Amino acid sequence: xxxxxxxxxxxxxxxxxxxxxxxxxxxxxxxxxxxxxxxxxxxxxxxxxxxxxxxxxxxxxxxxxxxxxxxxxxxxxxxxxxxxxxxxxxxxxxxxxxxxxxxxxxxxxxxxxxxxxxxxxxxxxxxxxxxxxxxxxxxxxxxxxxxxxxxxxxxxxxxxxxxxxxxxxxxxxxxxxxxxxxxxxxxxxxxxxxxxxxxxxxxxxxxxxxxxxxxxxxxxxxxxxxxxxxxxxxxxxxxxxxxxxxxxxxxxxxxxxxxxxxxxxxxxxxxxxxxxxxxxxxxxxxxxxx
Length: 290
Known about the structure:
290 residues; mainly alpha; 2 domains; 3 strands
């Protein structure tokens, strides 16, 4: 029913001359439900372009609620570090963008398609560029593994609505006789904005996804030339922060405990021991982060 209502709403939102007949809407709703029930198949349905469009919509909604930090030098610095790390991965061709949001909340987020934001509250608690690289590499790993996309689509209601949006847009393009995919991308971007408004995007990821991002993140950091133990230092810092401190509760509510994450990382860190001598880059970090 949620899927059918979503498809109906999308149909009624179109101009009168472009509205779909009810039978067509029912068909689209049924297709949306089928895709929502097959999460892994649904994930494969999205092209890279559609993943990027969805991520752009989420970013728009996200930054509509929280502004970027005004320090342009800091923004350039974090963006350079993040893009360098991303260039070392198998998805280097994504339009990677990194930024710092102006909030004391201690957290970081990755959007489908390659946008990553880290809070100023977290950045100023870090001690070196290798620690920053560890945080960014963890978020990059989420994008590499499409964790957010899988989590979004595992919500049956939202998956059906998004798939319905995609189907409606495709149908309208076909009825106009056009082959332009911009309509589909616009629908997905709008769906991404709604995803933030509804609070679905900020739901915690599965613990296994967080552990996988931790393990892959330290590898990405090491591949970028940083000491992979920088991320271990970040988790150690978080483990020492009191949960009642301002801005910390959201981190603990959306991630496994730092102690559990450290315990999981211990299983793979011995393999990266030979990279422990790579730079921490403390001086450049301290000059930029005031």
